[in-house]
Amino acid sequence: MAAWILLYKDVGVSDNSFKHTCGFFKESAQIVDSDFLKKGGSWVEGSGMLVIPGGADKPYDEKLRGVGCENIKAFVRNGGTYLGICAGGYFGTSKVEFALGTDIEVNEVRELSFFQGVSRGPFLKDFIYKSEKGACAAKIKLLHNGDIFYAYFNGGCMFDTCSVKPKDMENIQVLGVYADKDEAPAIVKCKYGKGYAILSGVHFEYDPLIMKDDTENQEILQPIIDAIVETRKARDRFIHSLFGNRKF
Q1: Where residue 245 falls among pLDDT bands split at 50, 70, 90?
Q2: Is the pTM of this model over 0.85?
Q3: Best CA proximity match to 37, nearest among 60, 64, 62
């Protein structure tokens, strides 16, 4: 029988994002790949959360389009939670517009469409694959209580609510916005059937202790680490609001 938390690991998932996501969920998550998700079966009705971490969204689409995406949608429709972080967030929208006009451009529709609009990025800084040069600390403001926390950002998106039809906005809740850039939606919660999809353009799961291990990029990462640590209590309150008292 599948675990309560399923963590996706296949082509496109970045090693760094996977490491941090594993650290966040500790031993609670079962690692799964595209073949597992495409088989369907007990996980569609028996698991609680599917986590798609950061990396590159295009390989996710190539691996999971069709039956894989249909199984994921059935899982959420039956009451499951989809957690998509950065690339996993892009993947959960109706259309990805990434780095338009560059040699890494992605301008494609997606099948999951939990957020029935466009994800646009990279939103804060230019992105370079397998590099920290585009990384920064994103200042996130939570709408339900005004809390501010900083999160690691590298290539993430904003969720363009202006691209969503008014009737579809009834199922979308903006949880957090980019406080320093137009208060654009950074984290959204989308109702789908009996379940929800939580999509984030920022990496709220990143652990400063793991980031410190990357000695090669400390000049870039140290200011981000400091910002995350300074506002960690607000971040933890946000995580509690998402997952309650559940222990990973």
Answers
A1: low
A2: yes
A3: 64
Q: What is the pLDDT of residue 27?
A: 74
Task: Give a three-class secondary structure readout of the chain.
Answer: CCCCEEEECCCCECHHHHHHHHHHHCCCEEEECHHHHHHCCHHHHHCCEEEECCECHHHHHHHHCCHHHHHHHHHHHCCCEEEEECHHHHHCEEEEEECCCCCCCEEEECCCCCEEEEEEECCCCCCCCCCCCCCEEEEEEECCCCCEEEEEECCCCEEEHHHCCHHHHCCEEEEEEECCCCCCEEEEEEEECCEEEEEECCECCCCHHHHHCCHHHHHHHHHHHHHHHHCHHHHHHHHHHHHCCCCC
Q: Which fold has domain 5-243?
A: Rossmann fold (3.40.50)
d(CA 185, CA 201): 9
118 contacts: CB under 8 Å, gap ≥ 6? 93, 94, 95, 96, 97, 160, 163
Read off the pLDDT of residues 154-189 as tens digits, 9 standing for 90 and up: 999 999 999 999 999 999 999 999 999 999 999 999
Measured distance CA(222)–CA(212) in Å, rounded: 8
Return d(Cα 235, Cα 227) in angstroms, integer.
11
Instruction: Measure Cα distances from 90 to 10, 45, 158, 196, 204 in Å.
Output: 16, 24, 9, 16, 15
CA–CA gap between residue 52 and residue 66 (Å, rounded): 17
**The total number of residues written for the chain in this structure:** 248
- Give the number of other CB atoms < 10 A from CB of residue 208: 16
